[in-house]
Design brief:
2 domains, ten-stranded mixed sheet, 10 helices
């Protein structure tokens, strides 16, 4: 039996996992950690789920070949990028709850925009490379000119120690320094963890809408639109068109009146918004160990295999911890897209020759292993900064936010 077929192999032994096992996988010939979880709509078979919409209001449909050779219609329920964000948010919650200790960089907007508050490298779309950090100050210096910023800018796969010290999750979830002076030539670190959720054997749904007005307002009310965007029944108060006539409006323009039942589900009528029905969904997670092995971690220009493996083990443990915390947060992906797992799927360690060993993991186990891996890394002199580093936004960044809000408010008015 090969590694791809083993999701149906219920006879395999499920072993306990430990730091020693993780060390062996990272330093040995293991190719990846993998977990495949089967999910079902919370409403049961036949109930709808709603995928994310993409440009033009479209769902991401795709034909995929299954393990049995059958080609089925699938729809994307949660993308690789979205899954990475969910793992990062789960790690941030665990960090704030004191379950784990990790380096943390943040920009504090609280004194300027209370609703924005604090943005961390776990929140920012491009992590430590995000323009929010680029356009902020650390100890009065532009971030990229500070000691921590310079360590990030100079990081590459041959020397990732500075990034490991201050933003290790960027090495797990990937980062591209596309916003710096090098632009598109900035350093890239590939994702080591890839996860997605796909609906299998998907069928398009239809979208229905209707509204019964308890007030029974109809066009007979003769509404007019005012200059402020409100409505009036007095034609003298109405907004005038180019001909100088009072501009009429329909009750539905102001959410009054009945909306007769409507239905769409025909591609000719535009984007489909009616959700989908699926046989089931599959979440596939892969943590690539070769991606971590490409990274080097010299200290004071001294590079050792022991130190490289210790840093890679921390990153692998961080990835596994993020996966487990995400699982325990559940699968409420968006409005009307709540999925329930068919049991807790085991993790698989896949060797380069296709052999598979299975483990049961949860966040308590992975958090313990993560802390042990961090201690192990410190023992070989790898730097690890656990105190939060607080940046302040530049004046120009604050002004850009203010002007954008003013413009938005003006348009809405």
């Amino acid at each position: 039996m090969n590694a791809i077929d083993n999701e149906n192999d219920t006879q395999k032994e499920i072993n306990t996992f430990s730091l020693e096992k993780l060390n062996a996988a990272v330093a040995g010939n293991a190719a990846a950690f993998r977990q495949i979880t089967r999910l079902y709509p919370a409403g049961g078979t036949g109930s709808k789920v709603f995928p994310p919409t993409h440009s033009g209001g479209l769902y991401a449909w795709e034909k995929r070949r299954m393990a049995n050779g059958e080609v089925l219609t699938t729809v994307l329920l949660d993308s690789v990028q979205s899954q990475a964000n969910r793992m990062e948010q789960a790690l941030l919650e665990a960090l704030r709850a004191g379950k784990i200790k990790l380096p943390l960089l943040l920009v504090d907007f609280s004194d300027y925009f209370e609703d924005i508050g604090i943005i961390t490298t776990f929140d920012a779309p491009h992590r430590i490379a995000d323009a929010i950090f680029r356009d902020s100050l650390l100890d009065g210096k532009k971030f990229r000119e500070s000691d921590i910023g310079e360590k990030f800018v100079s990081s590459n796969i041959r020397n990732a120690t500075g990034l490991f010290q201050h933003c290790p999750h960027a090495l797990v979830f990937g980062v591209w320094d596309s916003t710096g002076s090098e632009g598109g030539l900035g350093n890239k670190f590939q994702r080591a963890v890839v996860s997605e959720i796909v609906g299998i054997n998907a069928e398009k749904g239809v979208h229905t809408s209707s509204r019964i007005d308890p007030l029974g307002i109809t066009k007979a009310a003769e509404m007019y639109r005012t200059n402020s965007g409100d409505w009036t029944l007095n034609s003298e108060e109405a907004k005038k068109n180019k001909k100088g006539e009072s501009e009429r409006a329909k009750p539905s323009d102001f959410v009054h009146g009945n909306i007769p039942p409507t239905i769409d589900g025909d591609e000719r009528s535009g984007p489909l918004r009616g959700g989908v029905t699926i046989d089931h969904a599959i979440q596939t997670i892969v943590l690539s160990l070769p991606a971590l092995r490409r990274l080097r971690f010299p200290v004071n220009n001294d590079q050792t295999q022991e130190r490289n493996n210790a840093a890679r083990t921390v990153l692998a443990a961080l990835g596994l911890s993020g996966i487990c915390h995400m699982h325990e947060n559940g699968y409420d992906l968006r409005s009307r897209c709540l999925l329930i797992p068919d049991g807790i799927a085991p993790f698989e360690v896949i060797e380069n020759d296709g052999k598979v060993e299975m483990f049961k993991l949860n966040s308590k186990i992975t958090d313990k292993i993560l802390q042990e891996a961090i201690t192990q890394a410190k023992e070989v002199d790898l730097p690890w900064h656990e105190d939060a580093v607080i940046l302040t936004p530049e004046d120009r960044l604050l002004k850009a936010v203010s002007k954008s809000r003013e413009a938005k408010s003006s348009v809405e008015e």
